[in-house]
Each structure stands twice: as structure tokens, then as C-alpha cells.
Amino acid sequence: MWLKKSFAILVVLGLILAACGGTQGSNSPSANASGSGAASGPQILHVDMGGEPPSLDPTQATDSASITVLRSITATLVYFDKQLNVVPWLAKSWDVAPDGQKITFHLQDNIKYSNGDPIVAGDFVFSWKRLVDPRNAAGYGYIMADVKGGSDLLAADPKKDAAKIDGLLTKFGVSAPDDKTFVVELAKPAAYFVYIASLYGTVPLQKKWVSQKGFTEAKNYVGSGPMKLTQWQHNAKIVIEPNPNWNPAISAAEGGAPKIQQVQYSMITDPAASLAAYEANELDIGAPPSQEVSRIQNDPKLSKQVIQGATLNITYFGFDLKNPTGLFTKSVTARKAFSEAINKKQMMAVAFSGIGVVADSLVPPGMPGHQDTAFIPYDLAKAKTDFEAGLKEANLTKADLKLQIGYNTGANWENKVAFMAEQWRTAFGVEVKPVGLEWGAYLDRLSKDPFDIFRLGWGADYPHPNNFLTDLISCKSTNNNMGYCNKQVDDLLAQAATKPKLEDQLPLYNQAQEMVMKDAPIIPIRFGQRFALVKPWVQNLVPTSQDSQITGENFFAWVSIAPH
Amino acid sequence: MLGYIIRRVLWIIPVLFVVSVITFGLMHSAPGGPWSREKKLPEATVAALNAKYGLDDPIPIQYLKWVGGLLHGDLGPSYKYLDRSVNDIVADGIGTTVQLGIQAFLLSVIIGIPLGVIAALRHNGIPDYLATLVSVLGICTPSFVAAILLLVIFSVWLKWLPTFGWDSPANWILPTVALALFPIAQIARYTRASMLEVTRKDYVRTAHSKGLREGSIVVVHMIRNALIPVVTILGPILAFLITGSFIIEFVFSIPGIGRYYVTSIGQRDYGVIMAMTMIFAVAIAVMNLIVDVLYAYIDPRIRYS
Amino acid sequence: MTSVANTAAAPARDPGALVDVQNLKIHFPILTGVFQTEAGRVRAVDDISFEIRKGETLGLVGESGCGKTTTGRALIRLRNPTAGKVFFDGRDLMSLSRGELRRMRRRMQIIFQDPYGSLNPRMTVGSIVSEPLETHHLSSGHRMDRVRELLALVGLNPNYTNRYPHEFSGGQRQRIGIARALAVEPEFIVCDEPISALDVSIQAQVLNLLVELREQFGLTYLFIAHDLSVVRHISDRVGVMYLGKLVELGPPTAIYESPGHPYTRALLSAVPIPDPKAERKRRRVILTGDVPSPVNPPSGCRFHTRCWLYERLGRPENCRTEDPPLRQIGDDHRAACHYAEDALKSDVGVAHLEDRVRRGTPAAVAARHEAAAQAAVPHEQGAGVAGTGE
Fold this sequence. Notes:
The complex is a heterotrimer.
Chain A (H helix, E strand, L loop, with lengths): L1 H24 L3 H7 L8 E5 L15 H10 L4 E3 L5 E3 L2 E6 L5 E6 L13 H12 L17 H6 L6 H10 L2 E5 L2 E5 L7 H4 L10 H4 L16 E7 L3 E6 L19 E5 L4 H9 L5 E2 L6 H6 L7 E14 L7 H4 L1 H9 L3 H8 L5 E2 L21 H15 L8 E6 L5 H15 L3 E6 L1 H10 L4 E7 L6 H8 L13 H12 L3 H18 L2 E13 L3 E2 L20 E2 L3
Parallel strand pairs in A: 1-10, 14-15, 14-16
Antiparallel strand pairs in A: 2-3, 4-5, 5-7, 6-7, 8-9, 9-10, 11-17, 12-16, 12-17, 13-17, 18-19
Helix pairs in contact in A: 12-14, 18-19
Chain B lengths: L1 H28 L13 H11 L5 H13 L14 H36 L4 H15 L2 H15 L11 H31 L2 H8 L4 H29 L3 H6 L8 H7 L3 H29 L7
Helix pairs in contact in B: 1-12, 4-5, 4-7, 4-9, 5-7, 6-7, 7-9, 8-9, 9-12, 11-12
Chain C lengths: L16 E16 L4 E17 L3 E5 L6 H8 L7 E6 L2 E2 L5 H7 L3 E4 L13 H11 L7 H11 L16 H13 L5 E5 L7 H18 L2 E6 L2 H7 L2 E6 L2 E6 L1 H6 L4 H9 L5 H6 L26 H5 L4 H5 L5 E4 L2 E3 L4 H6 L18 H13 L14
Parallel strand pairs in C: 3-8, 3-9, 6-7, 7-8
Antiparallel strand pairs in C: 1-2, 1-4, 4-5, 9-10, 10-12, 11-12
């Protein structure tokens, strides 16, 4: 009897093994990879986008997975090169009016959508109005706030003000005098605004396309970029291929017509599995989780495939300045003391696996306006005296302090927060209690009643200091969870926005940043750093600090694959 | 019997009602919402989004609207996947998830039951220890560990099987095995215990005394009786397997619906949370009903009226 | 089973014996710890020898845990002995091949105590009863007719073949068990406390049925009971077990009126007598203490730790050191006690009633009905004997 049963098991095992063996010959990934060793192998780039993109509607997308694809299949008026200089893209040139309140974009000749229709200036008008229309409730609609009439539209209630919205839209400051000219009128001088025209939310859209049901599905998709969407298997993969209607003249600097024949984006949700796929040669670009960094650095083969570089983001801890009786509200010196007590260099090595750059200011390196100055350097002795002084300033005793440091759970912040709490304990003999909350609950808490100290991050939408200062730390910024407000800083930022030239803006932004750092509303911790793996056969990859999800994603069209 | 089944089916309705009310209430009482971002959206945009999706209505009204949609077969919009409806998302993924679940179920039955039987027949012998070892490993190894282990061994080292995706049968093997490990162990343990109990029954001694062949004693008198309690756990196991596993779908990047159990909650994707809860509740209720009906069929002592 | 010590043992000593048990030992290892090492052994049956003669009914009594059920099962090789031999009709059961054993099973059957547990709940009565017929290729033509005949024989409605065991009462289930045992036309049936799980009102009926079938088919029974009174009226001989040993064996008159083992006398004194006068006159001893553990039985005579005679005789040394053999103390009467003669002289436990009921007398059957019905009642009250209730 038991013989029979074990035979059954053997049969099952055999079937499993047979199935494994069978795949080895036919469609196993390794066979695939080695089979492509012909003189010029298939020009297919395999990358992982980390999950299903929430939306490929350029108006609605707000997240990095969507952006990584949109960057290739849609095109904006202006783009940036690898040094992050603004360069012509669908617009061949643009004029800024002397008062800084009007920008006229002149479109390139011979630009077409992936369906062959010409791209006309009216499509930008339609697209921008779609973005600002409160009935569409676009997550990034607020980038239109500087356009004339934009803030009125953004503030309009889609139900109560329904009657007014159409009227407001006709007054919205975008127009197309002819098919090749797109004019933007601004509500106030905003020299950085041309950068906003590089955001994917501003791409041209055909009205007849987006009014279709299911227009974001691959079979319906009408893109304006160098690549086009050819396949979107939800939760599984996205495939893009060159857009035959792309005018190679536009991208002459990048290499003209797209070189790659296909980019396959997988949606591997587990970082460990993604690394496994990279190691199994199923992916050409890998993004290892931080706990794998040291293994990779010690691996003779993998360590040669590492690509590192700055990314335009910052991790910081904010102080709650809204609580009127709080230590940090009452005393700048105390804020400085808590900042001075953190040995960021050690923290980087211990808690971040050495990946990242110690942050001592707000604007990250690689972005205009970065200041390589340690405004509040690590100084334990000074921290101690500042702490005592701060207590006096605030008229508090050590015993009064019941400080909490907040962080979001499930993202490996525990050890970092613990490190900081330990440093404060050593420096001041003060317990700062770590409190972790689930992401949604955490964000909710920050907007209502922040912790005394809380973790947050900020990444660049566009490579301009305005995005790191005005959008984050000005009095009215919705992202200013600290409740920090310095009118002088706001004045400087407004003043900078009126200067048409970047070199005239930078001194003002620098001054603003210095002022902010003196007020110490935050403890900057770490500027982002990419730690990616790239197979040696991936050629012409252009990593930029603007890559949001995948290294080199902004210029995938011009990557080529060497025989391997 | 038919009357019994109809009554049980009707009972599912109030159960689903209670489950949906509780879930809806809990979900909306959780802090944060679908529009919470690290980069905060302006209040006006959040208000516009709430208006667009009807999230500015009072919660009871939202619930009634949701029920109304449900009765028309409309599960509402996804707040995360803005281009898509919950119907789309479920329709896209449920086939894959059910397929994976059934594969894992069949594998766990095909392996688990013989494993348990052999262990019991060779009680305290080497096959028993091996089977116990397998069971303990299966139960103690968290599925994400097992999944990653399988991935590293069979995909990274041996390069036999692909690491992710669902395109070909080769893709199915690792997730199926990883998903089946726990139920294999569960079924094997249960079968073993049940078999050991049956072994001590007088009717098995009777069978021996009748002079029956060993094989027919094991099959007719032991296994058939030992499997009665095993069937009770098969129902919930199948319900768990076909409604999807977050971990397995997450690790192997399987385009099913299982991953939404966790992600939809983190994202406060209300429509998806409700859909997933309902699917799970229906699956459990239906499986329990099937088990009860099956029970009456295989155990003559049980009769429903 | 290969560890039989005396492999060259001679066949049955008693030519009239259908079953001959020689030096039967059944030990269960106690496994403990991670590596399941043997920490000790439960000596469930420890070196017993007896025979069952063709056509006789041997009653086997003892407290629970004394090894009587284990002995019964070993007799038809439902359990393999640790050592010793069992001959059935002159053939050594341990030496039979699987196939031979299966064929031999036709000749020996068992009726279990639990009438429900012994019937496969997923099989109909028809298949339960007909299964052995199929296995042994009996009455191939009209198997269902034979099943109906058997059901009728045990007093069940022959049309119940498609019913399941749970649809019957306890007594009816036991009848099914009997029909099943009879199906293969056996010569020898082990009745393992067949009535003790039944309602009192049913016990007599089932007992009568067993007696009637015995007469009708000339069956040989090993009748196991924990109750002395049940056994008395249907047995030709009675064996008494204590802690894995057979301590006394003899005809009912000897066992009940002049027992030669102090344990038998202690058991008897716990049986109430339905005659107040006799009851008052009787000398009783109460067993004290628990039954010792069969893992570590007392040295010498196993009963000495609780023996009234041992105390009365001033604790003789050989009781503690020497295991008394089962020896002849009367006509067909054997006991395992160094001082059996002293026990015989005593009047402890014995009620001097006129025993009107004898097996084989014309009134026997009718009287047995009555006796069995009464016999079943009192064992609950036998508080003097530790652990009598099962």
C-alpha cells in the first residue's frame, strides 16, 4: 500500500522535474539571454518598474512608476539634458516677455503623435486646461497655479462653483494663436516656469483621444514621445517600442531616432525578487534593496556593475513649530542643539549602508542652488551648551520634556530613528520616544498634529531651487508640515522668481536657504544617492539625477544592447 | 437537502451585509485617505478629488451608494489606479489568482494526504519522521522565506525557472509550490493525526479480523474514514488559496488580486478594499457550505434537513 | 514476530485444545525523548499459558488493565506477541504467512466491546456483513441472501442491509457485529466484553443470543469480562488475570465456591449477593491500594502488595521473591499461589448459597437469562475492588 502511495509521490515529483527540465530547453530566461549572442542581438531592454503604474493618463499620473513610462511615450515642450539644463523638445524655442509674465513657445516642425496626427498648439491648450480643471481633480493640477487664472480654478469647488468653471477656463492664461505657437500668461513673474513646462503633466493631448473610454490601454494609446506604448498587461508588464512618427531632429543631441527596439518594463513588487531577476539575467538594470548593498559591494562580479550617482531628493526630520508651548517652537537654539547632536556621517554608514550623501542644507547637489556648506555642523560640545541655553530660552526644565519622534512603519526607518534617539540620549540625557505609524495614518497625523520631530522626504519635480524652497518651506506651502514661516524668506523667494536669468536668481535663492538654515526648522539628514546595477551590455545609458524610478529612464529610447 | 442549501445560501446575505458594514466603517475610520501623499496635495485638489469620487458624502450615504453599485454589479472606481474601475482590476486578476490557488490546492492534496497516510502507517518509523519534518518545515517556514528560497535556488543558482511573471507554465511552478507548502504541511499533519486515530478504531481491528487484504483495510476502512475530518479543513484551505496570497503574488510578481489585500489598505483604495473583503467573505462562506454539503455526502451519519 | 524464544516448541500439549497458549508475553515499549528511546515496558501480558478446548467457553476475568483484552487479541493474532506461542488447531499462528493468516481468520473471529466503534461508519450493514464473504469467496452466488439470512439469525430485520450503523441502537449494532463475525462460519470467537457497553435491559438479550448461537453452531468462545457474575453462568471454565498474569483457572464451581487464589477471593467478596442473610454471613476482604504499575510490577508474586493472605500469614518471604507458577490444586483447577492450600481453607469472599444454576441442566438457558440480567447490574457497586468499572 505504502509503496503505491510513494509511487504516486514519485510520479508527481517527476512531473515537476520534467516541467522544470522542459523549460530549460525552450523558454528559460538563461536560454533567452545566451541565445541572443548573435552579432547584433535583439535590441530589447529589460527593466523593472516596481509595480503597476496607477495611471498612464498624463493629467492624472503623480507617481514615479507612471512617470518612468510617460517620460518615453509622451513629450513636453521643453526637456532637460543630462546636466539638467533646459533644452528645446517639442518647442524649438521660447520667448519670455520682459515683465516675466508671458512665455511664448514656438513648436517644432513636423511633430506627430504615434497615430500620425500632427501635434498642434491647441493640444497644449486643451491639455493644460484639462490639468487645471477642478472637475478632473488632477493631483498635479497645482503646477498651473502660476498661470493667469490658475489659482482661481484650482480653488473652485467642482460642485458649488460648477457654473463658473467654464467661464474661468476661458479666462485661463493659455492660448494658441496658431498651430505652431503656444502662449502662456502668468499671474506673476515666475522665471522658473519654463521648468514646469518640462513636467509630464503638460504634454500635448488630443481631445478625441482622451474622450475615448479606456484611452490609456495600449491599443488606444496616442503618445507624443519618441517611444509608443504597445503593450500593457496589467500588473505584469508594459512594452514600448519606437514611435515611427517621432521627428529624430528633435533628439539629435541624444542620438536622433530611437535606438532601442523594445523596452520591457516588468512589475516586480518585491525588491529582493527584483534583484534575483537581475542576477538571473532577466533584467538589465537592477535596483537592489539597501540590505543587499554590502553583499553586492563584496561580490567580484556584481560590484563592477554598480552605478552610483546623486538623485534630487532629501530626507529630513522636521520640528513641530505649531505647538505654542513646545520646546522647538519656543527656542531656535534648542532646534540647533538637536541638529548639532546628530553625527550624520556615522548615521550614513551605520543606518544607510553608506548609500547617500550627508545633507547639511536643503537644495541637493546636482541641482542649481546647491550650497556645499555645513550650516549646522556636528558638534557635541556645542550641542550640550545649546541644549541648556535652549531650555532657558523656552523656560523649561529637562523634566518637562516629553518628546516624540515620528516615522512611518514598514520602510526601515526604525533603526535610523533609534540611532538619532540614542544620540540625543547621550548628548542631553533626554529620552525622545520613537512612534511609528502606518503610512496613511502617519501622513494624516502630520497634517493635523505633528510629532515634535518627524521624518519626511522631498524629491524634485523639476531641477530648480524653487522646487525645494518655495514648494517646501515657504509660509503657504502645503508641504510645510513644520509650520515654519519667515516672511523675509518668502520675500526673497518671490524676488528670485522675477529674475528671468538663473544666474540672477541663484544669489537670492542662496540667501533664502541660508536664512532657513539659520532658523533650523528641519534637520537635513541625507541627499539621495542612486545605487543601481547595470549589465555591461547596456550601452548609452544616461543616468540623471532626475530619474524617478529606473536609472536612465529619461533617455531609454537611445539605449543600445551590445551582443552578449 | 436542497432546502438546507437554499437556506444556507440565503444566510450568506446577512453575513455579507455585516462584513461589509464593518469593513466600510473601519476603513473610513482609519486615519488618512486615498489622497494622502508624502508630497501633499493642495486642499482644494483634495476637495475636488473628494467631490469627483463622492467621498464628500456622509459615510452612510457612501455605503448605500456602494451597495447600490454592487447590486448593479459595479464595484466602483479605484482610487489608486485612476484609469481603471475595481471591476476591471478584479476581472483582470481573479482568473490568475484562482488558477494559482487551484494548482496549489491540488498539489497540496496530492502530496499532503499521501504524506499524512504514509506517516501514520509507518508511525514512529523513518517515513513518519521525514513526513513530520516536512510538515514542521512547511508550517514553520514563513511563505516569503520559502518563496525567496525557491527563487534563489531554482532561478538564480540553477537558472531552471524564471523569477517573475505568469506567461508560461514554467512561471507557474515556483509560486504553486511556494503557496502549497503550508497547506501540504497542514493537510499532512491533519491526515496523519486522523489516520492514527482511525488506526486505533475497533472497526479497523474488525477489518483485520475479517481477513481483508492490507490494501483494502487501508483504503476502504482507514483512509475513507480518516479523510472525513480532513475535508473540513480543505474547504477553508481552498478558500484561502483561491482568493490569493499577498506574499506569493508579491514575491513572484503574479498579476492576480491577492496583492491587493495589503496594498489597497495602505493606499486607502476603498473600492478595492471592499471588493477584496467581499470576495474573501463569499469564498469562505461558499467553501464552508460546500464542505458541509460534502460532509453529508461522505459521512452517512450526517443528514441535513 | 521473530523473537519467539522457544521456536522448537512442541505442538499443543492438550490434544483436545482448539487454542493453546504457551508462555505468551506481550510487552509495549515506552518511548520517550527526542530519539524515542525505550524508557521501559508495559508488561501487559507476562508469560501466561492456557488452552481452550474445542466447544468450550472459557471466561476470562480481571480488573481493567490486567491484560485480558490484549490476551484475547493475541489469540487471533490481532496483536503480535513479544514472546510465546499461540496454536490454533495445532498450527502455530506466529509461523503463518500473511496469506495463510488471512485464510485462517475465517476460523476465528472477534466481537468487540464497543458495538459502534467496531462498525465502519461509512459502510452499510450489508457491506459490513458481506465484506468477509467476498474476501473469503463464500456464497458467491447469493451473497445478499446470505447477508439477510445472517441478519435474521441474529434477530435483525433482514431488509436493513442498506442502512448505516448509526441508524441502529446499541444492542442492534452489537447484533450486527455478531452477524459479521458469524458470516465466515468461524469455529472460535473472542467475545471481548460484548455486553458491557450495552444498556442493562439489552445485555441479557445479547448474552442469550451468544449462548443460543453457541449451541446452534457448536462454537468455542473466549468470553472476556471484568464482571465475575456474567462469566459464571456461561462458562465451562473461568480464568482470572491479575497484572498480566493468569492467577487461577478452573471450572466455575471451583472458582466461585472454593477459589484457590487470594485475589479471586478478594474479587468475589466484592460481588454483592442478592440475599441479605447470606450477605451478612459472608466474610469479605477489601482490596486496598491501587493496582501496581505494569511497567514495574512487584517482585515475586505480583499480588503480594495487596494480598490479605500474605498479611495474614505474616508476610512470608517467598511471596516477595518467588513468582508462583500456575499449578494444579484440584481437579482441572489451577492457581498461581504459594499458599493456595491456605486460601482454599479460608472462607473469605465465598457465599455459601445453593447454586441452582448449572450449565447443561435443562433449566440452564432460562436461568441464564435471569442471571445475566442480574449479573450486569451490580458491578457498579463493587466498590471494594479498585478500578473494576471500565
